[in-house]
């Protein structure tokens, strides 16, 4: 019986020790870390969808910013349709999916897409983000650009697009035989 009581006493002393440590680290202000930082909220995921249902969207031979006209489900990421700029409120890892529906009016057309970043000192091309796609003449092609990315608080990102000639455009299409209508947007960017 003494051994059982000693075991219980040892157990409850350990639980009390954990409670003391926890109560010192978890306060009404948040979680206190050994380096002195305080986390005031749980992990905050960010998400947004920017899309454009325009019948056609021209692509030129000069790099231009993709500017989807619509957005929804914005959470901790802002988007300005006038500038095509995404801005992050928090640092984190995000899944990016960028899709465009491209069609060429002549053969030999290629579409190029890449990202630019602004950390406060101006726009710079983002290394290793370039994608190129060879298009088939008069065939609508959905191009998907997907990757896992790290973004920092305050970082701004925009996506550039161009073609080797001005004979490419982006188009919105609809799924046949589906009611209500389901669209494949000319441009869709999701985080």
Topology:
Elements: H1 2-25, E1 26-27, E2 30-32, E3 38-39, E4 47-52, E5 56-59, E6 64-65, E7 70-75, E8 77-80, E9 85-88, E10 92-104, E11 110-118, E12 123-125, E13 131-134, E14 141-151, E15 156-163, E16 168-171, E17 173-174, E18 183-184, E19 187-190
Overview of this protein structure:
The chain has one helix and 19 strands. It has one helix at residues 2-25; strands at 26-27, 30-32, 38-39, 47-52, 56-59, 64-65, 70-75, 77-80, 85-88, 92-104, 110-118, 123-125, 131-134, 141-151, 156-163, 168-171, 173-174, 183-184, 187-190. Strand 8 (77-80) and strand 9 form a beta hairpin.
Largest sheet: 7 strands, antiparallel
Average pLDDT, rounded to a whole number, is: 87
What form results from the Cα inertia axes?
elongated
End-to-end Cα distance, whole Å, is 61 Å
The ordered string of helix (H) and strand (E) elements is HEEEEEEEEEEEEEEEEEEE
Structural class comes to mainly beta
Q: Radius of gyration, Cα only, in angstroms?
A: 25 Å
Per DSSP, the total helix count is: 1
**Which segments are poorly predicted (pLDDT under 50) over 5 or more consecutive residues?**
none
Question: Percent of residues in helical segments?
Answer: 10-25%
Task: Report the count of strand segments.
Answer: 19
Strand content: over 45%
In short:
This protein has 191 residues and is mostly beta strands. 13% of the residues lie in helices and 49% in strands.
Features:
191 residues; mainly beta; seven-stranded antiparallel beta sheet
């Amino acid at each position: 019986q003494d051994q059982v009581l000693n075991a219980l006493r040892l157990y409850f002393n350990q639980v009390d020790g954990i409670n003391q440590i926890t109560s010192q680290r978890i306060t009404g202000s948040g979680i206190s870390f050994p380096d002195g930082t305080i986390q005031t909220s749980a992990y905050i995921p960010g998400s947004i969808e920017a899309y454009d249902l325009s019948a056609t969207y021209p692509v030129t031979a000069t790099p231009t910013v993709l500017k989807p006209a619509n957005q929804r489900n914005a959470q901790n990421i802002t988007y300005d349709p006038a500038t095509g700029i995404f801005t992050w409120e928090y640092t984190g890892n995000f899944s990016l999916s960028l899709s465009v529906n491209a069609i060429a009016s002549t053969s030999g057309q290629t579409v190029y897409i890449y990202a630019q970043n602004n950390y406060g000192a101006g726009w710079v091309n983002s290394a290793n983000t370039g994608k190129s796609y060879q298009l088939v003449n008069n065939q609508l092609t959905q191009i998907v650009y997907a990757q896992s990315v790290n973004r920092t608080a305050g970082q701004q990102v925009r996506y550039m697009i161009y073609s080797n000639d001005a004979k490419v455009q982006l188009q919105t299409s609809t799924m046949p035989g589906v009611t209500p209508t389901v669209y494949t947007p000319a441009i869709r960017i999701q985080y």
